């Protein structure tokens, strides 16, 4: 395709340049409107500048990809409600054998979870949990956050539903779910293990510090309880009604003791003169008991008859002087709330049974969706069908669930499709590819290496999804001239390299930014993962993992 007219090329470059700036730097000072608005702005400029017609703009939106994204989002929401990610988090700390074992588990769990539930979702729900586990074990958060971000990116390369660029590749190439999995899964396994080995070598000294040192307490943040670690959020302790009493006067609730002969008659006369029907009267009784016998070392018991039913019921106050004084009220008339509480207790087993059945149904539907994908059924409609079945199974208004769908991401994709298609119509991507194509054929080692470098750089400059949209059909057409198998390999190479390229820099992948922001905003144990700390590890890891994975993908 030759270059378009000069005005069309210039205006198309301006529109695409604005889109690129907003996509890579969503909070630029001159227009901090975010990626979604920047994507729509680029699409609008492409139409206003007449680089692309309105009809072609609508046709550029790939509805199968949008449908697949929507379906996987809804399924992920239901899996999160069914505590799937909580169970994955518990798996990280279950019988952990130390810091190195924990780091290895983070790599494995995040990689496999990302392959099934998308890397962005896993990073959102696991970042805070990993910070809590690191705090519990007095470990530095940096290696575990890097393990989560990098392993999620590598793991997501294994399936078409692992990340957005794989969705695009699967739809554009027509490669089935099973073929995609067989082509990249071995490379993913080796890549995750290699990345874990690099992490262990890089942070070996940090992870070898003993938790318990002789003669002192270990340095680092305070250890949290296990039950706090198994939850995704810290919750304040609930205060019971006993807390309304003065802790200096009431220490514990004890069983009534046998009545003593040393009953204080003045206290009895005082208490008989009134009916104790509220907590205020109880407080008054406590004060009277404390004031009348502060020096007694014996246990005193007072009986208070109820004026409403003489002799029928009584209230006993028990006080122990060995610790702080304790007050007991016994044989109180049954309150109307007690029957309601019994009914609620009876309903608990039934509710638990319903929740268990609902969770099982969610897992079975998700498993059925994965089996249907492996059988080669249409991926978009399979995901949408699974989402609709889950919504119907919930048997409630679907609005609350659908509000959690990231519609901003769907709109971002729509704008990006239009913007990239308009940029393609300028002829610039095709002209640049014609200069590189003769040297980047995948029938030679040098060609594969050059193609990988081009994808690696462009994925970090223009982001991985636009890179796939710009290079996908061109790389496939070049490989198709060699053989049909080469075309499939070219798509898989593009999927592998564009995904692992996200580990190069902090800005290379949305999953990296999610981990960084989630860690920074954590309420009690925030951590700032800087650009340079990520880069120092990301560069060697990305180069080594990409090279090893390419050897496996090519040999498929």
Helix content: 55-70%
How many alpha or pi helices? 24
Strand order of the largest sheet: 1-2
Q: Unreliable runs, pLDDT <50, ≥5 residues?
A: 210-287, 289-332
Strand content: under 5%
Rounded average pLDDT? 76
Anisotropy-based shape: globular
Query: What is the string of helix and strand elements?
Result: HHHHHHHHHHHHHHEEHHHHHHHHHH
Structural class: mainly alpha
Rg to the nearest angstrom? 33 Å
The counted number of beta strands is 2
Largest sheet: 2 strands, antiparallel
- Termini separation comes to 32 Å
Can you characterise this structure?
The chain contains 24 helices and two strands. By secondary structure, the chain is mostly helical. It has a two-stranded antiparallel sheet with strand order 1-2. β1 (300-305) and β2 (314-319) form a beta hairpin.
